[in-house]
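User: Can you write out an input/output pair for a complex, sequences first and structure second?

Assistant: Here is one pair. Inputs:
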Amino acid sequence: MSGRAPSSDLAARFSGNPLLAPRDLMPSREDFEVLSVINPGVFRHAGRTWLLARVAERPAPAPGRVRIPVARDGEVRVLDLRADDPGLDVSDPREPKYKGEGLLSSVSHLRLFSSADGKTFTAADNPFLRGEGAYETYGIEDPRVTAFADGRFILTYTAVSPCGYGIGARVTRDWARFGHLGLILPIPNKDCTLFPERIDGAYAALNRPSGVIVGGHDIWLSFSPDLVHWGRHRCVARCRPGAWDGARIGVNGPPVRLPQGWLVLYHGADASKRYCLGALLLDPEDPRQVLARTREPVMQPVAPYECDGFFGRVVFSNGHVVDGDTLTLYYGASDTVTCGAGLRIRDILSALGV
Amino acid sequence: MSGRAPSSDLAARFSGNPLLAPRDLMPSREDFEVLSVINPGVFRHAGRTWLLARVAERPAPAPGRVRIPVARDGEVRVLDLRADDPGLDVSDPREPKYKGEGLLSSVSHLRLFSSADGKTFTAADNPFLRGEGAYETYGIEDPRVTAFADGRFILTYTAVSPCGYGIGARVTRDWARFGHLGLILPIPNKDCTLFPERIDGAYAALNRPSGVIVGGHDIWLSFSPDLVHWGRHRCVARCRPGAWDGARIGVNGPPVRLPQGWLVLYHGADASKRYCLGALLLDPEDPRQVLARTREPVMQPVAPYECDGFFGRVVFSNGHVVDGDTLTLYYGASDTVTCGAGLRIRDILSALGV
């Protein structure tokens, strides 16, 4: 590691990190290159551990040009600009602007990888999951996967189009056939994960709308009778100005039921856009109530692969598996690669003061 | 009128405008003053025409000070600052900022006014409708009222709190007792109006979420089985860059069923924040389909009371009544007063090319 992990960092990183890297993947079309393979949804199925990773691609670069993917008439085309075009603003490489209009630096789809031991992953034969319909023309990003006891898996992801980014959802039992639940939460919303069981008869989702003028990038909780229609929205955790999670927060993967309550891991960024992970403990009977929140991050970007890359100083997780006291976290590092780490649940509870 | 109305302006303004003005109202607390009485929801009930107007109040001014309402610990207090405080930014008087944090210039509640002739309104005895609960601590704004054939009235309004602004809703039959439906659409959302009947068995609402980074201030359509939970969100009309409705759009009051389709009036603002009104015609069977849209505004701010005031050059309507071919529009002018105007539906259809 480039820096020593601070004492609050509870993550034992895999020695084999990164587990997935762009160089291992073929792009989905020949005029694109793979920029990153990150932020997988995680689940167990058929005796294996699976990662549903976001693969972000961009137009292959050309000297002196900036090439930006744009959705036009339902398909992705390439806007090819001179690098010194005065209309171009690439001060944040993730969010280029052209003539004041926000554009995307990449278009994402989802690919499955599986592993027998949870440490060595190989690409699955399953078809890629791509954006479908008018609200996913810029692709689909950052999936969370929630497994229900009845055998259903629900994918919730960021659906991106020129109309904005909202929460899309699909349902599957076999990872071959999928039902589309539509845009389940309107723009602008990201970072949605479902609870793995109903709360008082209703599906429940933690999600992250973004305030305009008033309000911030906070974590909200919403409820649904049918996964398609959502209401009873309420804010459960706000950013803490000046702290490591002062600028934006959003949930990781599905909440984990413990005797003490629902354990929720989340990412937080400060004004410098350094992304760390923290934890919340929600009331076991009424998850609208936050029982505890870690003061310090439980994981911070310290390893070289977490500090250098397309957008450095980022650890960002959408999923995990739990085996006894061990929570194995899969996470995107530096917006470039996918890594793994183990955390002891008792350490997280201790950091929560429980 | 200060300027001649352009030929596209179809509105015959009432000679008695404004119908309601701040000077006619007492503030709801003695340390506040009434800033504006605007943007009423409109309905017919018990043989009269009713306006449910937004009354915006602010702390009474003091020399050399800027006094801003803030919600703290569930109640509204006054932040009292020196006018030259370097942390203060009042470049847009509707949206002051202090140390980068967005604040409100006013806090709103709703009051009922009624009229026998639709032209002279008097304050009703009904209690004021105020913000209730954590998501309305900064007040409630810009109500739309939709009357269903079963006698229910549904109010949809902007619920404002430090967590952001979303869509709140309440239901009543008698304007004395109200049921609260919660925050029905998450932040950030404004300008929500219900269709007066179900579409294929579902409640339908036009609403205006706001994009962050990608997406704009466009009109969306959402559906609900029960008025509480909403899904199947889709964008039905986008801003037209460079036009009078290039920066933001949002619906007026409830859609009007005509043989030709659903007539929807909407407001649009350009980059200079001049607010005009236009019209959409939605497919009578499938309102997700836009059949026509007016190229020019059907109403523009031209009268003195529409051009001068707290925030000039604004006509903004949340409701209307229909009598034969006459659509009587009640509207906020210059974010200060409430006015009335008549439009002929056949003229609007003609502007729509129908």
